[in-house]
Amino acid sequence: MSEMPSKKVKKKRNLSTYLAVLPAALLVVFIVYLVATPPSQSISTIATTGQTNTVKTGDIAAPFSLDLIDETGLKNEKVTFRPDSGQIYFIDFIHEWCVHCRNMAPIVERLHQTYAEKGVVFITVAGGYNTDAQKTAQFIKNYRVTWPVGFDPQLEIFRQYGVRGTPTYVIVNRNGIITAKLEGEQPYEALARELDRLLG
């Protein structure tokens, strides 16, 4: 006649079963979390300056002047931004190696085609971190950038505007006030909406 298993043996079996199932259950929970969690916005921008200064909407835009660069390289001219000029400005901060800047280049070109004729002034500030003027000139050529580009080799203007990563878009109204500062890849409609709001 066989004996009934003791309570201790039953507890050990229950514990063994629990420990065997626990890792699989945790894995399932983790997979569900990954699927259910939306991707972070930071995926669409690349950190470049480690900047902690905060420049936000409502701030007065700071004037700047940078060396002009085009598809042939640095020129003996300046790109100057004057917030008191009474014009609407679209300023984008990029690096030539930034994949998100490359993704956005056709969208910015489309914005330029639509809004330059409405009086919006476009300026690109190209950073010099981990790159040089020659590579930046190649970016300008490859992506058909036809508006003024200023080369910021030491990221001075990046820091002045609190730019933490690229691309970053700054829109300035006719009174020199920053009305939008957008980081990362943006849909055409979001950028166009900000410009339409200023054009009235």
UniProtKB/TrEMBL annotation:
Coiled-coil intervals: none
One Pfam family this sequence matches: Redoxin
Record's keyword annotation contains Magnesium: no
Top-level taxon of origin: Archaea
Record domain Thioredoxin: where: 55-200
Keyword Transferase: no
Keywords per UniProt: Membrane, Transmembrane, Transmembrane helix
Single GO term (MF): oxidoreductase activity
Transmembrane stretches, start-end: 15-36
Protein name as it appears in the record: TlpA family protein disulfide reductase
Species of the source: Caldiarchaeum subterraneum
